[in-house]
Task: inverse folding
């Protein structure tokens, strides 16, 4: 009885993601993002800095002026299995990978073990683009798309160990509609724009002249250093916060009971 009540509660509370311990669904084509959920002003659903929604983390271009993606009521699609999307999540370019790990414009999440990752997507433009699924080391999904009118449903099988981070990105722009993970529990990675460490809970990223410290779960010490190594700001916070800095490149160190993180941020 308790299990049934918990399952029903999950269905009621989760409009964006459906989770039953082994299945996670992100319906990006029908989520109705209107602005704040995308991290910017209402009515402007453009993703231009790192953030996490229902255990799916979105990481942008390293420049705060170049947007990562946009959710828009454009390119509605009907797929071969009957799934219909009214909107698209449009990637604004490729992931610029280093090896098989993207460095910008990607989606990422952690899995507890072997699983399948099913993706509904469409190309963008007339030239061929590839959608890739990796664990940062190995590629276990590499799917070409012919153009911006053909729809695709592909399933990548991850057979590695648990606690690994999964990356989804493209060789260039493409349109994403839905992701389903089966066989593993999904959790959110701790990730800043320029930091790929998973030890600390807080995220550090910049947007224009502001630096954000988000996902703060306990008292956190924040130290900000100039590129020359000089300490320019130091404070403690127990909640998400932001602060402004002069134009330049900075190293931000955050330390809490969850661990430590160092992120390089650009302020412009």
Result:
């Amino acid at each position: 009885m308790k299990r049934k009540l918990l399952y029903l509660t999950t269905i009621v509370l989760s409009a964006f993601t459906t989770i039953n311990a082994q299945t996670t669904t992100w319906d990006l084509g029908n989520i109705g993002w209107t602005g704040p959920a995308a991290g910017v002003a209402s009515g402007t659903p453009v993703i231009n800095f790192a953030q996490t929604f229902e255990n799916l983390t979105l990481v942008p271009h390293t420049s705060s002026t170049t947007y990562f993606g946009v959710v828009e009521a454009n390119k509605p699609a009907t797929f071969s299995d009957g799934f219909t999307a009214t909107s698209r999540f449009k990637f604004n370019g490729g992931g610029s990978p280093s090896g098989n790990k993207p460095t910008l414009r990607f989606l990422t999440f952690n899995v507890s073990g072997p699983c399948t990752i099913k993706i509904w997507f469409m190309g963008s433009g007339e030239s061929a683009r590839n959608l890739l699924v990796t664990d940062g080391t190995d590629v276990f999904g590499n799917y070409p798309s012919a153009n911006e009118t053909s729809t695709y449903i592909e399933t990548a099988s991850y057979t590695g160990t648990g606690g690994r981070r999964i990356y989804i990105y493209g060789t260039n722009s493409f349109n994403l509609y839905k992701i389903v993970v089966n066989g593993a529990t999904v959790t959110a990675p701790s990730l800043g724009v320029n930091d790929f460490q998973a030890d600390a809970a807080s995220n550090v990223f910049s947007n224009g002249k502001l630096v954000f410290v988000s996902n703060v779960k306990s008292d956190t010490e924040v130290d900000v250093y100039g590129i020359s190594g000089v300490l320019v700001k130091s404070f403690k916070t127990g909640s998400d916060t932001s602060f402004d800095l002069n134009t330049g490149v900075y190293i931000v160190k955050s330390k809490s009971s969850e661990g430590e993180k160092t992120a390089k941020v650009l302020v412009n």
